[in-house]
Amino acid sequence: MAPRHQRILHVDGDAFFASCEIALDPALRNRPVYVGGGRRGDGIVIAANYIAKRYGLITGMACFEARRKCPEGVLVRPHYNEYRRLSLEIFKRLKHYTPTLVPTSIDEGFLDFTDSPRVFACRTATELAERIRRQIAAEVGVPISAGLGSSRWLAKLATEHCKPDSFCEVPEGQERAFLAPVPVRKLTGIAKRRALALRSLGATTLGDVARLPLEMLRRRFGVFGLELSLLARGELHETLATANNARSCISSATTLPYDEPDYEAALLFLLDQTERVITTFFRENLKAREMSVFVRFRDLEGVGRNVRFPAAQFEPREIDPVVERVFRELVAGQRQPIRQVCIHFCNFEPLDLQPDLFGDHPEFKRRELHHAMEAIEARYGPRSLKTGARLLAESQAAHLLGEKAKCPFVPQREMELKVGQLPETLRENTLDPVYKEAWLPLELSESKSGGGSLPLPRAWGRSTSRATKFG
Predict the structure, then answer these.
(1) What sign does the dihedral 55-56-61-62 (CA atoms) show?
(2) Which of 120, 197, 249, 267 has its Cβ near the most Cβ atoms within 10 Å?
């Protein structure tokens, strides 16, 4: 009897951010919708639905260019907290259908689909996949596409093949025929240099790769070459498992609501953001050995510096003075207003939580104190407890402060942790949108925005793991 291979289902939200906005406001349905706008509507497009894409709108396009290409399009500002909430609602439902769910981003993940159709009394995998897609579309309001194959690579390519809002299965034994016309550049992990290297070998499609000698690919690309050859031949079979890799960095790059000429106010804002990042240390029992500070000015030029602590640190009282010293060194002699500040930590060590002969370790006590502070905030509301740095910032830089909605491009390990903590049963009324401010599309309006200018949208930050941008 031939061995039974695992079947992997890949799910992906269609134009996820734009689809979330349509789910939150059904009046936007059947209209070209794009999300972005920056601080004053002068930023870039971060997502566009498929109607808007027909006009040529793409991610990264300037909003003024998008408005020129699609005058009837609706520009909406992002609501990242709602995107996170809708993402978890989707994963709650996916978790019900599989023993193994591996989320890879806020709107994308892989499911072990080997036995799921039989368990849910479906005659075919297509029947169950369509049932899942219909359930998510009806209950969450976000369309998803799905692909089924013998490996993650193949399942993802199947999803790309059937987008938007559809399902594609690559049956066992037909993998090679399905992959033959697929360009190698469509495969995850094939960037420009690898594509050029494969083209030099005469391979522009996966069908061409399948005809190359296995040993040639192994010598040229190592293990990746072996996997690529097996995939192109339709012989790659994977076992899906969660990774849960250790954290390699924690960072925050936050654009200020206004370009700030007062460097002292910008420093208070940076210290407030540092405090937010350090909160993650206590949540994940970590301390950092290295830190970077980066400052970007109005002209988009920036300066940064890396610092290595004598010993790993996790307390603001030890980290803040170093942040302040480095910041002052970076802005010395500068004249441009500050547009963005970044704080980056890496080279982590675990907190020492083991007690000794004389009682609990100081790091354990400090972590428990932080957890007690979080419990107080959970009971009495956010910022009911404030540090001295926060109070000073609120008195001297209140125009910069606020709860910034962080852009939810989170690493796979964080999505795995969040999905692992989801309840087994779904609560009722979990899809009611909750806004801390009124939801308004970013549309030009003489009556609402004063002379055609866009209302000031919420500023947000974004995380990055690219240590090289800190110089």
Answers:
(1) negative
(2) 267
Give Rg (Cα) of the chain: 25
Quote the DSSP letter at residue 467.
Answer: G
Whole-number Cα distances in Å, 20 to 4, 33, 51, 57, 103: 38, 11, 15, 18, 18
pTM of the entire predicted model: 0.73
What letter represents residue 379's amino acid? Answer: R
CATH superfamily of 1-170: Reverse transcriptase/Diguanylate cyclase domain (3.30.70.270)
Helix (H, G, I), strand (E, B) or coil at 242: coil
Q: What is the three-class DSSP state of 340?
A: strand
CATH fold, domain 174-233, is DNA polymerase; domain 1 (1.10.150)
- Tokens for 2? 């031939």
Q: In the numeric block, which tokens belong to residue 290?
A: 């290295």
How many angstroms separate the Cα of 368 from the Cα of each of 175, 282, 360?
A: 53, 9, 11
Beta strands in 327-430 (DSSP E): 338-350
Catalytically annotated residues: 108
Q: Which pairing describes strands 249-260 and 167-169: parallel, antiparallel, or unpaired?
A: unpaired
| Phi, psi dihedrals of residue 43, rounded to the nearest 5° | -95, -145
Please say whether the structural domain 249-408+462-470 has been given the CATH code 2.60.40.10: no
One digit per residue, the tens of pLDDT, for the chain of length 471 reads 445 788 999 999 999 999 999 999 999 999 999 998 776 666 889 999 999 999 999 988 988 899 999 999 999 988 888 998 999 999 999 999 998 999 988 899 999 999 999 999 999 999 999 999 999 999 999 999 999 999 999 999 999 999 999 999 999 999 999 999 999 999 887 888 899 999 999 999 999 999 999 999 999 999 999 999 999 999 998 888 776 666 778 888 888 878 889 898 899 889 888 888 888 887 778 889 999 999 999 888 899 999 999 998 888 888 999 999 999 999 998 989 999 999 999 988 887 777 766 667 777 777 777 777 778 877 887 777 777 767 777 777 776 666 555 554 555 656 666 666 666 555 444 454 443 333 444 443 333 333 333 332 332 222 333 333 333
Q: What are the sequence ranges of the domains in the chain?
A: 1-170, 174-233, 249-408+462-470
d(C-alpha 470, C-alpha 16), whole Å: 30
For 107, residues 6+ apart whose C-beta sits below 8 A from its C-beta are 12, 13, 16, 87, 90, 144
Give the list of residues 6+ apart from residue 83 with CB closer than 8 angstroms, or none: 16, 17, 20, 106, 408
